[in-house]
């Protein structure tokens, strides 16, 4: 099941990354092809929802937390302003109930990432409840004593520096180099995917009355396409593009080189194992709705993975992936210098609130040698 899932996610990542003619097939492939030409301003929402978990996973306490997991990420991007905003919402219906939403603001030109503390003061979900459970109620105390923090932002690049105790590189990341590598990689992946779709029989593509285009992919389709995608990893230009993208995120070139080959081999081995596995069944029902200028307005992929090795109790995992794009981006207000609180200031506030919290619980009964149980 793990190898089946790895293979499907490899394929899905390719489709999302690349994420009209006269026939449904031509319209489908033309829409996919257009995804390698992003607009100057765009907003993309990607959703992931687990529809069914295998029985063996449900029996495991840690995995049971994934039941009903739904993740939605919305990214608004303005290429000219070199700014973007992301909202990540997570919900679960399993052993641990989670309903939380967090935001990130990215200023690529200034190389800064901000987290608005207002997210922690918003009680729409159950984030406060979860954090109170982890801190024994101390989180609510910090919020109560520091209402002004609701208007502040923490610079996560500074947090990362403090946590890793590393010096910030003085050289600015060459954003143009990263953009070029990303576009080159996207075009190569797009061509591989569209070439495969074009090789399929036309009658496998259907068009609905509402303009939606559908195709059902089988295990054979998925392994063939996955093999084509993984072949790209042997292209030195593809590896070079990936190195530019990954090292820009802070990974050393040495670590990248050491892990690249082993990671690619792992995927290749997984594909071979799935091809040889007679009891494995995979289906993906892919639906695309073209928008203006042949772009993808929305995409929906229903994935079902079945392992029938145990004939009496077959294992099934199902999940749905959705994507919607628009050619516009409404960015929130970015913080000014006075809006940003330093990690040192934040740490001091937390320490003072912690001390105050325990004083309220234990008073003078605590000494320097006491341990709070």
TrEMBL record:
Signal peptide: 1-21
Organism: Listeria weihenstephanensis
Listed name of the protein: Lipoprotein
Source domain of life: Bacteria
Keywords annotated in UniProt: Signal
């Amino acid at each position: 099941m793990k190898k089946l899932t790895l293979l499907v996610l490899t394929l899905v990542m390719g489709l999302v990354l690349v994420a009209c003619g006269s026939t449904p097939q031509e319209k489908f492939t033309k829409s996919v092809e257009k995804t390698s030409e992003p607009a100057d301003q765009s907003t993309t929402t990607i959703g992931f929802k687990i529809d069914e978990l295998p029985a063996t996973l449900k029996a495991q306490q840690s995995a049971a937390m994934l039941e009903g997991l739904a993740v939605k990420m919305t990214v608004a991007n303005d290429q000219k302003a070199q700014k973007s905003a992301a909202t990540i919402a997570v919900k679960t219906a399993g052993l641990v109930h989670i309903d939380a939403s967090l935001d990130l603001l990215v200023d690529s030109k200034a190389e800064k990432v901000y987290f608005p503390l207002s997210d922690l003061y918003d009680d729409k979900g159950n984030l406060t409840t979860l954090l109170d459970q982890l801190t024994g109620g101390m989180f609510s105390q910090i919020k109560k004593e520091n209402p002004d923090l609701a208007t502040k932002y923490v610079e996560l690049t500074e947090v990362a520096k403090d946590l890793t105790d590393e010096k910030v590189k003085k050289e600015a990341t060459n954003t143009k180099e990263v953009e070029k590598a990303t576009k080159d990689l996207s075009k190569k992946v797009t061509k591989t995917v569209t070439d495969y779709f074009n090789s399929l029989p036309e009658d496998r593509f259907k068009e609905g009355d509402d303009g939606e285009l559908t195709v059902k992919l089988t295990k054979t389709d998925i392994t063939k396409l996955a093999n084509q995608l993984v072949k790209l990893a042997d292209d030195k230009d593809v590896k070079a593009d990936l190195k530019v993208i990954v090292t820009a995120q802070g990974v050393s070139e040495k670590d990248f080189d050491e892990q690249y080959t082993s990671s690619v081999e792992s995927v290749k081995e997984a594909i071979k194992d799935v091809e040889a596995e007679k009891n494995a069944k995979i289906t993906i029902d892919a639906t695309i709705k073209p928008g203006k200028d042949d772009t993808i307005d929305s995409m929906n992929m229903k994935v079902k993975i079945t392992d029938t090795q145990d004939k009496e109790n077959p294992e099934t995992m199902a999940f749905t992936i959705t994507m919607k794009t628009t050619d516009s981006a409404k960015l929130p207000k970015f913080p000014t210098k006075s809006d940003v609180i330093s990690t040192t200031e934040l740490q001091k506030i937390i320490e003072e609130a912690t001390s105050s919290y325990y004083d309220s619980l234990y008073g003078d009964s605590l000494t320097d040698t006491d341990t709070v149980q």
